[in-house]
Amino acid sequence: MFVDKVKIRLEAGNGGNGCVSFRREKYVPKGGPDGGDGGDGGDIYLISDRGIKSLTFFRFNPLIKSERGAHGKGSNKKGKNGKDMYLKVPVGTIIKDAETDEIIFDFISPNLIFLAAKGGKGGRGNASFITSIKRAPKIREEGKEGEKREILLELKLIADVGIVGKPNAGKSTLLSKVSAAKPLIADYPFTTLTPHLGVVDLDYERSYIIADIPGLIEGAHLGKGLGIKFLSHIERTKLLLFLLDGSSSDFKDITNQFEILKNEIRFYDNSFSYKPRIVALNKIDIMEQNSIIKKIEEYFVEKKIEFFPISALKELGLKELKEKMWEVLSKLSTKNGK
């Protein structure tokens, strides 16, 4: 199951109450106040972890509470602090305020730690209130309440390349051929119901991450088909690979696929229009005429877009495509100083 957006409530532990106590010991004629402080409530932390792939845990645990601090005791015994909670989230998770939708924190890399809810401080016992005037105070503090808040967790995949295409364009097959990923593959629309990630290894030193984004149809930015919930995963990719289905062998149909995909992405967020892109025409092994392939190539050359005719199933043209994607990503890294 893939869950990419969930609302949760966090309740950090309350602090323990301070204690009112006086020493009562044999052979000690003058006992004094010895009430201990309460323990602090447990904090709640979120940590990004590459091993976590979804927000499913939070879907089934929408209310998360940490342990409260123990109350103070006599003999100046401080209450035990409540245990802190450390919850793992996938890399790429964004924390938003549930009311304002404001971004609070962005887990853009692994091993980042965010204090999501602070535990309450323990109250002071009467031993803490001794002064030169008040030698036997009978007062104490109650523990402070732990922080309570509602937040939204939203997961956006972090991949170098995002494969976009209409249903049945062959995205899952391509991903399975260029990486070790094993997505579900079938001959019906919307086989891909969740984004899949794969690592493309060119050699020992060159690799990048590629994501198979579920199929887009016309009107996806309005919620049609699988809707905008998956368009959001394109945001973090550096390069877009438009995968076109060549099985119709029809020039107009194939070029229309590109225009629809391009428009859906632009309508969702116009800034995507400036992302580098490559076009791959898939299923050339079953296309009827090579002249159509040549005509389509000329169409994209005129638009100054890199074009690759491929067959993911037969593994035709994949080596050249993988090298080109690496080349583009390398230039982007150099440009950005990374």
Shape label: rod-shaped
Stretches where pLDDT is under 50 for at least 5 consecutive residues are: 183-193, 217-228
- Largest sheet properties: 6 strands, mixed
Radius of gyration: 29 Å
Portion in helices:
10-25%
Indicate the proportion of strand residues. 15-25%
- Counting helices, strands and paired strands, the structural category is alpha/beta
**Using DSSP, what is the number of strands?**
14
Give, in spatial order, the strands making up the sheet with the most strands: 10-11-9-12-13-14
Query: How many helices?
Result: 6
Order of helices and strands: EEHEEEEEEEHEEHEHEHEH
Question: What distinguishing features does this structure have?
Answer:
alpha/beta; 5-stranded mixed sheet; single chain; rod-shaped; 338 residues; 23% strand; 14 strands; 6-stranded mixed sheet
Q: Can you put this structure into words, describing what you see?
A:
The chain is built from six helices and 14 strands. With 338 residues, the protein is of the alpha/beta class. 40% of the residues are buried. It has helices at residues 56-59, 171-178, 228-231, 251-268, 290-302, 318-335, and strands spanning 5-11, 44-49, 63-65, 85-90, 93-97, 103-106, 113-117, 148-155, 161-164, 196-201, 207-212, 239-245, 277-282, 306-309. A hairpin with a 5-residue loop joins strand 10 (196-201) and strand 11. The chain is rod-shaped and about 105 Å long.
